[in-house]
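#structure-requests
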Amino acid sequence: MQIHFNTDKNLTGSEELIASATSLISEELNRFNQQITRVEVHLSDEDGNKNGVNDKRCILEARLAGMKPIAVTNHANTHEQAIDGTIYKLKISLEKITGRLKDY
């Protein structure tokens, strides 16, 4: 599973954040490793330099072998919280999809 990071113009992706998020995504999505070919991570700060509530956004897009990509979004106060939320949402979506595939 490949993991690619994209950030908007208001955010510079720190090596520490990217390394931490890559490790967390790999660990949390490990059981879906056979189905996922690539994960795209899109991080943004919707308010730019202003301080706002829930202005950090993370979109995770999982590319599944032989299927359409799945994308989930989460807003939070920090990028770490936004990443955690999208991982949780993505796991739920993947469990539903892989569960349906097993039924056929």
